[in-house]
Specification:
Helix content: 40-55%
Bound molecules: erythose-4-phosphate
CATH class: Alpha Beta
Strand order of the largest sheet: 1-2-3-4-5-6-7-8
Order of helices and strands: EHEHHHEHEHEHEHHEHEHH
CATH architecture: Alpha-Beta Barrel
Number of helices: 12
Number of domains: 1
CATH topology: TIM Barrel
Strand content: 5-15%
Radius of gyration: 18 Å
């Protein structure tokens, strides 16, 4: 059962339906699931393929991803399933649109994950204009969050998720939770068409802090959700304090949401590095000679 006072929607970050079943059984509810190429590469069936030397062809990989998403969608028919486009630094807007429109035919409850790059933002503008749902990923700055808001203006409530990656900011010594706090404050007076999905959650502390800050959604790995269930699904009290353990604070930036998305400085080294890693993990599953 969902705790009575829980407003935040809880997603599983993973690509193994067995894990989804286990988390659903432990929590008694689950609001959705996020996938990405790195998680796909860790799917037991995909891993077994790779170990046996049977990599997917460049078309079979999409069949595999489709079957997986359909299984997740059947498990969570009222939830949302995030499906990520393949993108590297050279992927064009058109290539992203083609993948996104195809993914949208796979299941009725998809949010299409696009990188928060110039091409990803241009694709998001087109897709939300077509009434499709998107999840903007690899977000590491408030300027990127402002650009997502601007690129998807006019989208319906819940149609746009924004995924700031807090764990990867922590990894380089910055307090990722500050970014969630700053983006929520920036969006508070807005029309609310973008919802904040705290991602790259590594610990129960991250999870509890995201709840305390009032993140619209959180996606967390099975181990964190199972630990939360084991602890009795506690919610942070009024006096909750996050221990940032010496991480450098990320200052709030006074940004207007009124500009065009092209006018925000969206570049971030972690977005570039994340794109490269996702592309490598996707390609590690494919037989490039096929
Ligand atoms: C989810 O949407 C993200 O892709 C995921 O949380 C990234 O997590 P990581 O930084 O642990 O890879």
């Amino acid at each position: 059962m969902r705790p009575d006072n829980l407003k935040t929607r809880i997603f599983l970050d993973g690509a193994d339906p067995e894990e989804t079943r286990q988390v659903m059984a432990s929590l008694g509810f689950l609001d959705g699931q996020t996938t990405n190429p790195s998680l796909l590469a860790k799917n037991p069936e995909a891993e077994a393929h790779k170990v046996a030397g049977n990599k997917f062809s460049s078309t079979a990989i999409y069949d595999f991803y489709k079957t997986l998403c359909q299984e997740l969608s059947a498990l969570l028919p009222k939830g949302s399933i995030s499906i990520e486009v393949y993108a590297d630094a050279g992927t064009t807007v058109e290539e992203m649109l083609t993948q996104a429109r195809t993914f949208d035919t796979w299941i009725p409850n998809a949010h299409i994950k696009l990188p928060t790059t110039a091409a990803g933002l241009a694709a998001a503008a087109v897709l939300t204009g077509e009434g499709r749902r998107v999840n903007m990923t690899l977000v590491f700055s408030q300027a990127q969050a402002a650009a997502v808001y601007a690129a998807t203006r006019g989208a319906g409530p819940g149609d746009v998720f924004l995924s700031p990656f807090i764990g990867r900011l922590d990894d380089r010594g910055e307090n990722g939770m500050d970014l969630i706090k700053n983006i929520l404050a920036m969006y508070a007076p807005s029309d609310g068409h973008v919802q904040v999905l705290t991602a790259s959650v590594r610990s129960m502390e991250h999870f509890m802090c995201a709840l305390a800050l009032g993140s619209d959604l959180i996606t967390a790995p099975a181990k964190v959700l199972l630990a939360w269930a084991e602890a009795g699904k506690p919610l942070p009290g009024k006096n909750y304090v996050y221990n940032a353990k010496g991480l450098t604070p990320i200052p709030d930036e006074a940004l207007t949401l009124a500009k065009s998305w092209q006018d925000y400085p969206i570049g971030h080294p972690l977005t570039d590095a994340g794109l490269t890693k996702f592309a490598a993990d996707w390609n590690s599953l494919i037989d490039m000679t096929s």
